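Hey, resending since the last one bounced:
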Amino acid sequence: MELDRVVEPKPVIINQHRAREEMIALAKEGVKTFEELPIRLEFNPLFRQDGSINLAFTQEEFDEIRKNVRLQNSLGVKTELLEPHEIKELIPPINEEKILGGAFIPTDGIPNPYAVLFGHVNALTKMGVEIRPFTKAKKIKVKNEEAKGVTTKNSDINAPIIINAAGGFAGEIAKTAGVKIPIQPMKREVLVTEMLKPSIDPAIISAHRNFYLAQMLRGEFACGSTVTKDGDPTLDSSLEFLRWISRTIVELIPQFAYVKIKRQWAGVIGVTPDKRPIIGGVNGVEGLYLACGLGG
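The structure tokens again:
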């Protein structure tokens, strides 16, 4: 699906802080994939494996994280349960009085979204793949219960295999093929600070309070959250998010009260009701495959 304006890629934390076996397995494979990308693509995705910490602010959150750590360890993820003073050693500026503990996964990391994009474009081009940027997919063509191609704003593209990986718009484009999938589009807002000296290595996550904070390669910090309001999400940045995320981060790391914000933006992700992705073929439409719902 084509958007009315270009959306800046959001920072992605490749993390394994999951609570279900299938999601942990998928996250493990994601880490492995990024570790192997330099060989697969012959291009460096700038994947920094500084780890990530999932914080607990209440006893209930800490108990759930402890349970998840046991499951992650049983599936081969080397998650470590940490007390506040141990988190303080990894993140010196943190206000340890605000947290009860957390979980640290040293193999998690952050790739550069532009490097990942350009690496794939470069590899696909070498394979002879034609990429058509800014081409709106209007409709999936189906005949006799078989996928036949895609109608775009410019022309029809005939193809026996169609992969719907349209993120938050996957449900909308699936309807054109007569397929209904439970994808809810949600807004994810992000802000980026000025460039600072390296000070926090692991990415900070709060699965319960729905925010993240991570220092990027050039020194700026990115922090974001998913907005769960009802209705169609827009790409407009909100003052509400700016106030909430600023207050949340400053309470956690007081020094951020003096940090300047460089820019702010929003994007749309696709989430399913049970936060599980939808991956695989579609019954009733031969040749149509789904790879969506990955925003949860």
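The chain has two domains: 21-114+184-271, 135-183+274-292.

Sorry for the duplicate.
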